[in-house]
């Protein structure tokens, strides 16, 4: 199965953000609307606050909110999905 990258997706409206306990990373959640024919989706990005680099790490369809909780300095749980911000990426299309 061919996987499609979520890196091309842009966030529409910011709904929340959360910074890691050590202040190195900030995860920001955006609400995306596909228009009249599709449901809402949530995009999660992570920014390295030292290098200012940002990448997409979370993409969930049929979703309009984001609960973000850090478990340590590099691991975060977004709506029940645990991700390491250095290496993980969640895309609902791959489930």
How is this structure best described in words?
The protein has a five-stranded mixed β-sheet, with no helix packed on it. It has a three-stranded antiparallel β-sheet with strand order 5-6-7, with no helix packed on it. It contains no helices and eight strands. It is globular, with a radius of gyration of 13 Å. It has one domain. It is 0% helix and 48% strand. It has 95 residues and is an all-beta fold.
- The topology string of helices and strands comes to EEEEEEEE
What portion of residues is helical? under 10%
Strand arrangement within the widest β-sheet reads 1-2-3-4-8
**Total beta strands:** 8
Contiguous uncertain segments of 5+ residues:
none
**SSE-based structural type:** mainly beta
- Percent strand equals over 45%
Our count of domains comes out at 1
The average pLDDT score comes to 92
Secondary structure tally, helices: 0
Rg, please?
13 Å
Distance between the termini: 11 Å
The description of the largest β-sheet is: 5 strands, mixed
Shape category: globular
Brief characterization of the structure:
The protein has 95 residues and is mainly β. It has strands at 13-19, 25-33, 40-48, 54-61, 68-70, 75-78, 81-84, 90-91. The mean pLDDT is 92.
How do the helices and strands line up, and which of them pair or pack?
Blueprint: E1 13-19, E2 25-33, E3 40-48, E4 54-61, E5 68-70, E6 75-78, E7 81-84, E8 90-91
Parallel strand pairs: 4-8
Antiparallel strand pairs: 1-2, 2-3, 3-4, 5-6, 6-7
């Amino acid at each position: 199965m061919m996987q499609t990258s979520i890196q091309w997706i842009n966030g529409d409206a910011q709904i929340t953000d959360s910074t890691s306990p050590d202040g190195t990373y900030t995860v920001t959640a955006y609400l995306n609307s596909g228009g009249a024919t599709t449901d809402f989706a949530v995009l999660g990005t992570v920014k390295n606050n030292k290098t200012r680099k940002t990448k997409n790490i979370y993409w969930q369809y049929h979703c309009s909110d984001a609960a973000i909780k850090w478990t340590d300095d590099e691991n975060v749980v977004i709506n029940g999905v645990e991700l390491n911000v250095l290496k993980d990426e969640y895309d609902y299309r791959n489930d």
